Amino acid sequence: MLTRWWRKRSSPLPNNENRIMTIKHTQDLAQIRAMVPEMRRVKAIHFIGIGGAGMSGIAEVLLNEGYQISGSDLAANAVTDRLADKGATIFIGHEAHNVAHASVVVVSTAINEQNPEIQAAREKRIPIVRRAEMLAELMRFRHGIAVAGTHGKTTTTALVTQIYSEAGLDPTFVNGGLVKSAGTNARLGSSRILIAEADESDASFLHLQPMVTIVTNIEADHMDTYGGDFENLKQTFIDFLHNLPFYGQAILCIDDPVIRELIPRVSRQVITYGFSEDADVRIENYRQNGQQGQFTVVRKGKANLDITLNIPGRHNALNAAAAIAVATEDDIRDEAILRAMANTQGTGRRFDHLGEFETGNGVAMLVDDYGHHPTEVDVTIKAARNGWAEKRLVMIFQPHRYTRTRDLYDDFANVLEQVDVLIMLDVYAAGEKPIAGADGRSLCRTIRSRGKIDPIFVPDSQTLPSVLANILQDGDLVLTQGAGDVGKVARHLAALELNIGRMQQI
Known about the structure:
ATP-binding; UDP-N-acetylmuramate--L-alanine ligase; nucleotide-binding; 23% strand; cell shape; six-stranded mixed β-sheet
């Protein structure tokens, strides 16, 4: 279990053991640094937007490899604080002088080309690379396992990491979200294994050249990147799979209709997983008991595995099956797989159980989830219904991006009307300009016109606690949903312990 490893490394040791551990760490570090000898010419690496989940993970691994790391962001957060504690130099705000000592500058697609640090780097002829290019350099001399797909990447990456850690293989991992059992979204391991989330949102995952690739599903998302052409998106996934060497493996979810359609076009070894009868790694007899899923995994030529998975939902059973397929091909012991599934604590903001609270009018449960695509919202609702069928489901939903709300408007309306009570925040813009008719108020109006539920529109999230206080009932399951800053709302509600009296005072 990752937690156990963390405690062992951080607990006090006798002097002699401390010395041995220090020597071993030094030897491991020297071995790791030797993996990418060409990058020894690089001394200082600067990240623009270092507070983001993907950027911070790479920065943390490079920091632990011994590079001088600096970075800038518009505001401090828990991630920037942790990096600063580890020795990174963090700048709040983007200024030209921040890149003065950088050997290379790493940027994410969220950073505007007019950013003063990008302009300063160009003037100084400092190389500017995208996040995925730097991740590709980390992966180049390692055994890379990349996890791609529209949904489920972060959880699947965490589950693969959990299995390899339980097996004592000490992988390096870079994830797009917090691996709760490790307490971080990235860690430098001592082995040659690197497990990483691969981002298709800007097609930058084409820089990666892994040995194993998982694709969880393919849906129309981030279509601006692909010129609005779904065929272009599908071909990009094919191109990504063909970055595998001829001896590599593609682990593909055959339940997904798009993936099933594309399999004949993949000229690499394919191993399929899913609930489908023809899956190479097949899930049977799924049932959910509260926070846990239980099911059997049937593998060709291997013993069946009776799995207890410590995160809910059929979608997470699929994520687990992908991780099990990779581990099985790597001859990882079944005992390590079973322990990893039972011990996983999930990932941050993925059906994140924040607690059950005495509200002053009974008891209510609070869950926070990152899902922001209709498919993700739908499976989260199903997990809540399957695990807590007796509870009234109160969803606080924040749409993410005007373009996504516009493109998937009817899908959102169809999914959101499934809850018992819907509180709608306005769109989290993520830098986009408003689009008429693609906002929270319009979505509420459409759902209300269908006559199934009467959504409540809350344009100012600061007033949400008082709104929630007026509708909260005994036994409610309150689910905050979205990829914007609704996670802060969830933490605020948890700090208030869903107490009606305290929420009414806000």
